[in-house]
Design brief:
The protein is α/β, with parallel strands linked by helices. The chain contains 9 helices and 12 strands. The strands form 3 sheets. Strands 3, 4, 5, 6, 7, 10, 11 and 12 form an 8-stranded mixed sheet that branches. The chain has a two-stranded antiparallel ribbon with strand order 1-2. The protein has a two-stranded parallel ribbon with strand order 8-9. Helix 7 links the parallel strand 8 and strand 9. Helix 1 packs across helix 2. The radius of gyration is 23 Å and the shape is globular.
């Protein structure tokens, strides 16, 4: 049995598709199929069953998957520990974060860290709330910024590093555009531009509207803060965005108005796997982040 076979097996199991696994592995589809077949012959069992266009693990395949993932994870950690032992300053931090933090927060903290640790490398992975949790649990990232902070989780732990206020954004010609602050209920008759389902900011805005006494009427949906801002600036509706997402300016700019009642906020957390020691370089970055945000650990 070869390590390559385990890598191919795990990737096919995750993707449930040989072609997609081969593309991500950057090898030919035939090579993946051949290695899976050889692995099944060596074990004397069927690891996958074909269902439509997808492959699904057999019961014994599910058992083998758990062991294979543990072996590969331990191997990766062993290689990483050896590299860090030689020189921790040459290590790599793998960090996940939602798109809304990629405009300002992530570049700011990384730039500040690299002033004193210039040789540390970073691998970044953007995602939505569920995928960030999944990537962390699967050890595809070491740390993840996430919003909202998960209050209780079986697999992850961490700290709230920031609580950020959301403000209303309005078209420049909106009747309330000249107000310094408004109540959210004043927007009950407006069309809202919201993030698509699955993005953590959507339920925050939705719940705030419900608290204000109305159900928001959705006219448009987007997947990036720049899209939301642009649609609002173009007069397509109103929305709420975190203050951090409003620092960037562009030619098409909405009006930002403080929301007085209810006050709408989001928590931003820094999470890691529970009951598992971080790699040395990630420990250094983690300590730096807690100091950066003045969080008591």
């Amino acid at each position: 049995m070869e390590l390559r076979q385990l890598h191919y097996f795990v990737k096919v199991a995750q993707k449930e598709h040989v072609t997609q696994a081969a593309e991500e592995l950057h090898v030919a589809q035939s090579a993946v199929s051949r290695q899976i077949h050889q692995l099944e012959e060596e074990l004397g069992v069927k690891l996958f069953l074909q269902k439509g266009r997808n492959l699904h693990l057999t019961p014994v395949g599910q058992l083998f998957m758990k062991r294979a993932e543990a072996i590969l994870k331990e191997l990766d950690r062993s290689v990483q520990e050896v590299q860090e032992f030689i020189n921790p300053e040459l290590g790599e931090v793998r960090i996940g974060f939602p798109h809304s933090l990629g405009i300002h927060l992530i570049p700011s903290v990384v730039a500040a860290f690299r002033k004193t640790h210039p040789n540390v490398k970073f691998r970044f992975k953007q995602g939505m709330y569920p995928s960030l949790i999944r990537d962390l649990v699967r050890a595809e990232v070491d740390l993840a910024f996430i919003s909202p902070f998960p209050e209780a989780s079986e697999h992850v732990t961490g700290e709230v590093v920031l609580t950020e206020r959301l403000s209303a954004i309005l078209p420049p010609n909106h009747a309330l555009a000249n107000e310094e602050e408004i109540d959210l209920a004043q927007l009950k008759d407006d069309t809202f531009v919201l993030f698509s389902p699955g993005y953590s900011l959507r339920p925050i805005v939705w719940d705030a509207c419900i608290e204000a006494g109305f159900t928001p009427r959705i006219g448009f949906e987007g997947e990036e803060t720049d899209t939301i801002r642009g649609l609002v600036a173009a007069g397509m509706g109103v929305s709420l965005l975190p203050d951090m997402a409003l620092r960037h300016t562009s030619e098409l700019q909405p009006v930002c108005v403080k929301v007085n009642k209810p006050q709408v906020t989001r928590t931003i957390g820094l999470i890691r796997r529970k009951d598992e020691k971080l790699p040395l370089v990630a420990q250094t970055f983690h300590r730096f982040l807690l100091d950066y945000f003045n969080v008591q650990s």
